[in-house]
Structure formats: C-alpha cells, structure tokens
Design goal:
This protein is α+β, with helices and mostly antiparallel strands and about 450 residues long. About 30% of the residues lie in helices and about 25% in strands. It has helices spanning about 60-65, 115-120, 125, 130-150, 190-200, 235-260, 260-265, 270-275, 285-300, 330-335, 390-400, 410-415, 430-435, and strands at about 5-10, 20-35, 35-45, 50-55, 75-85, 90-100, 155, 165, 175-180, 180-185, 205-210, 225-235, 280-285, 345, 370-375, 380-385, 420-430. A hairpin with a 4-residue loop joins β15 (about 370-375) and β16 (about 380-385). α4 (about 130-150) crosses α6 and α4 (about 130-150) packs across α13. Residues about 305-315 have low confidence and may be disordered. The protein binds 4-amino-1,4-dioxobutan-2-aminium adenosine-5'-monophosphate (4AD) and magnesium ion.
Length: about 450
C-alpha cells in the first residue's frame, strides 16, 4: 500500500474506512514506546485514535521519527484502519507513515497534577486537555440550545452595545472608560436596550458579553461573563417565570441528549439533571425569610449531644435573617437544599434590587421580580423581573437611586410613547454551564476567564 492512495479523514469518521488506508492529522496526546511496538494517541478535535507502530514493518527513519514525537506535536498519521472494540472510539490505526507538521518542545502541561494558577497561566494550552474540552463543548452546545429555543419561539435577536453611557444594574460594579472625553461604561446588561426593541418586535433577546467590576473572588464570579436576556411584551412576572422554566428544561434536556460523552468525562452525576422537570417550586422572598429563621430557631433550640438545650447566642448559632437584606450565597445554598430541582424566589424587597423593577401593587415594599436558584448549591443562575412601565414611578426610582437622570431619558421615553407591561430576565451562561457540568468553579467554563486578578492570557 502506498500512502498516496490514503484518503484524508477525521477520527470521528474512521468507522466508514475500516480496512482502508487513511491519513488523519492532529496532536499527539501520549506516546508509549516498547522494544518492538509503539502506541501513539492522536487527538484531532473530533475524537482520539490510537496508532500502532510495528518496528519490523517500518523503515528505520519512520520508527525513529515516530518514537521521538513529543507530547502535543502536530502530525499526520497514515495507516490502515482496524476495528478494535477495546480501542477508544472502537478503531485503531496500523501506522505506516508519519509526517511531522509542527514540533512541540517540552509541553508545559504534563499528565500530572498542576496547581490551578499554573493551569490558568497556561490557559492557551490547558484548553487541549480532556476535562477542559468537555466543559467547553457543553458550553457550545448550551449556547446553540439557547439560540434554538428563542428562534423556534419567534424571538428576534437584538445585538446590544457594549460601550454605553447608562448604568444598567449597579453603580458599584462599573468598568469605566474614556470615550473621546465622555464617560462611558462597559455594559453590565443589554436589558435596557432589548426593552426598547420590544415595541418593534414584541419578543426579543440579546446574548453577549457583560462586565462587572465585582471585587468578589468567589467560584461564581467573573468580571466578564456572557448573559442571555429575553424580553417579552405583555408578559407579567408569572409569565416570565413560566418562560424561564420552559427554557431551563430545554437547555438541560439538550445537554443530556447531546453531551453524554462530555458529561461522562466530567464525571457528572446526570441523575441530578434528569430531575429538572416542571413545575419548579416558587417561593416568595418573605416566605423564604420565615423559613430560614424557623430553621435557625429550630437549630438553636435543638438539644446538643449532652442533652442540654442548644446554645442560642453562642458564637456559631445561626443568626436571624433580617427581612430586607439580599440573599447571599449561604442562604441560596440552604434554599436550594430544600428542593431537588431549580427554585424560584420571587418578589424581593425593593432596596435589594435594581431601579427598573415594577413595584408590587399588593406589597409596595417589594418588586415583581424573581431569581432562579440552581440545585446543588450552584446559586442564582437567573435574575428577572417585570419592568416599571409608569414613567413617573420610574423617574422617582432613578432619583432615589441617585442615577444621572439625563442618561436615562431615552429609557423613560419607552414609557412615554405607548407604554406596555413587559418582563424579561438574564441567565448567566457560565453559572448555568458550571451547574450542568458540575464543575466547582465557573472560570473553567469560559475559554479565557477574566477574574479580578487575571487578565492574561
Ligand atoms: O441578576 P443580574 O444582575 O440581572 C441582570 O443583569 C438583568 N439586567 C437581567 C435582565 O433582567 N435582563 O444578572 C443576571 C445573571 C445572574 O443571575 C447570574 O447568573 C449572572 O447573570 N451573573 C454573573 N455571572 C458570572 N459572574 C458575575 N459576576 C455575574 N453577575 C451576574
Ligand atoms: Mg441578580
């Protein structure tokens, strides 16, 4: 057999070439050399295949080249495809020729333990490892599922600006930049803009990078993250939660359907994902506070091991949660432990939420909004609300929050020219993929994470 006749193919397609000579190109994952035989594992982006090299059947220079290949060298391997049930992917290659395309000298990431800071410093190379590939593949599938979901439901995609003059969420976490002498910010949200596109298209969404100068070093915070934000005319807060529920079920189902191999690499317990079915529990913020405090009181009253009453007031006794405070990661984890699927917490106190949320007519201390908390302690993955549609009330909130009124004139205009009830939400992509993949830190679910202490690579 001559290798001129070999067809170029992908590892994924080897099953269609059994018994024939092919050429596959990719990168060397591992190489094991014995006296008479060597095994090379090649990764081509569509799969991995093991090449077998028999010393007795190869010219000396081919054997020499093959057995000196370093980890992550880029090569083309030519050989006959053999079906082999034990091989990864079910096939192996009886290699007859090797072409070195790009040498690799001492690849920094070795098949051993490395510290995470080292790996993040080498993120440009770390992307090639199996766990990272699996996580990013799930991310890409989830992104596609998101677009499909909204496209199939007649939403029009609106691309919103990244450079903006208006504060979207909170003044405390803005990245500021100089825009030809004017103050500009990196967008914290596309929401205010998709709201304006509602009267044009009725149902719209944006999906893009958003920025928060959060000084949080937690496993759930990035300074640059991707957010999907739908906005629907004539939808109230309950309709909004219905849409979120349908949306989350769609995304999780898609991951379970198309990412089995990746979830296996990530050792994800998919049983937890299979219970993600409607309806999701809905519990108001005030009910949550009562329940948190009842639990804390119960824990304080419970007798300890000596039979003495619990030590209320002892330094580690759970403290009362005060109505009005925003829920933090600790409370969110407790709340999600009450349920086996995502849970809606709705109608938070006004003071804990953004200026644009509509006042709750039944309890004006609160606003018509919701967070969606993921199970297993992954915390808030969605924040949503019905929007204030009255221009005067909206202006009052802008003033109360001491936001620069003139920067929001256009946003208030939406309420001056044919105002309408509308609602929407924002889903954080990395937090969602972090939960679906079961990874401990969301920084692995974005190709190049931006963290408070990391801008490179
Ligand atoms: O709750 P947030 O701040 O809501 C908004 O931005 C609204 N404008 C959305 C809307 O109604 N259109 O953020 C929405 C989601 C959060 O639930 C969380 O998943 C994610 O964005 N998120 C972050 N993800 C990673 N790192 C951060 N620093 C994040 N901040 C928010
Ligand atoms: Mg939020």
């Amino acid at each position: 057999m001559t290798h001129e006749k070999a067809v170029r193919t992908l590892v994924r397609d080897l099953s269609g070439h059994v018994g024939r000579a092919v050429t596959v190109s990719g990168w060397i994952a591992t190489l094991r050399v014995h006296a008479r035989v060597a095994f090379v594992v090649l990764r081509d982006g569509t799969g991995v295949v093991q090449g077998v090299l028999a010393r007795s059947e190869l010219a000396d220079e081919v054997w020499e080249l093959a057995t000196s290949l370093a980890q992550e060298s880029c090569v083309a391997l030519t050989g006959v495809v053999r079906a082999d049930a034990r091989a990864p992917g079910g096939h192996e290659l009886a290699v007859s020729a090797v072409e070195l395309i790009g040498a690799s000298d001492e690849f920094p990431i070795q098949p051993k333990e490395h510290g995470v800071e080292f790996l993040l410093d080498h993120r440009h190379l770390w992307l090639r490892s199996s766990m990272q590939r699996a996580g990013l593949k799930v991310r890409a599938e989830v992104e596609q599922a998101i677009h499909d979901f909204f496209y199939e439901r007649d939403f029009v995609r609106i691309d919103t600006p990244i450079l903006t003059g208006a504060i979207g969420e909170s003044a405390g976490t803005l990245f500021e930049t100089d825009y030809f002498g004017e103050r500009a910010f990196l967008a914290q949200t596309g929401q205010l803009y998709v709201e304006c596109a509602c009267p044009a298209f009725r149902k719209v969404y944006c999906f893009g990078p958003t920025f928060r100068a959060e000084k949080s070093k937690t496993r759930r915070h990035l300074t640059e993250f991707w957010m999907i934000e739908p906005e629907v005319a004539f939808a109230d807060s309950n309709d909004n939660m219905d849409l979120q529920e349908e949306f989350i079920c769609h995304v999780v189902e898609r991951a379970l359907d198309r990412c089995q191999a990746e979830l296996e690499v990530l050792e994800r317990d998919t049983g937890m994902l299979e219970s993600v079915r409607p309806p999701f529990p809905r519990i108001s913020y005030s009910e949550v506070v009562d329940r948190l405090n009842a639990e804390a009181a119960g824990a304080a009253d419970a007798p300890d091991a000596t039979g003495a009453p619990g030590a209320a007031g002892a330094p580690d006794a759970p403290r009362r949660f005060e109505w009005g405070r925003d829920l933090g990661a600790v409370e969110e984890t407790t709340i999600s432990s009450w349920f086996d699927r995502p849970v809606f917490v709705y109608n938070y106190p006004k003071g804990a939420k953004a200026f644009y949320m509509k006042e709750n007519p039944d309890d004006p201390r609160t606003v018509l909004c919701n967070d969606l908390l993921a199970p297993e302690g992954y915390g808030e993955i969605i924040g949503g609300s019905q929007r204030e549609d009255d221009p005067d009330r909206l202006l009052r909130r802008i003033r109360e929050e001491e936001l620069p009124e003139e920067a929001y004139e256009w946003y208030v205009d939406l309420r001056r020219y044919g105002t309408f009830p509308h609602s929407g939400f924002g889903l954080g992509l990395e937090r969602t993929v972090g939960w679906i993949t079961g990874r401990p830190h969301i920084r692995e679910l974005v190709p190049f994470p931006r963290l408070i202490n990391r801008l490179k690579p």
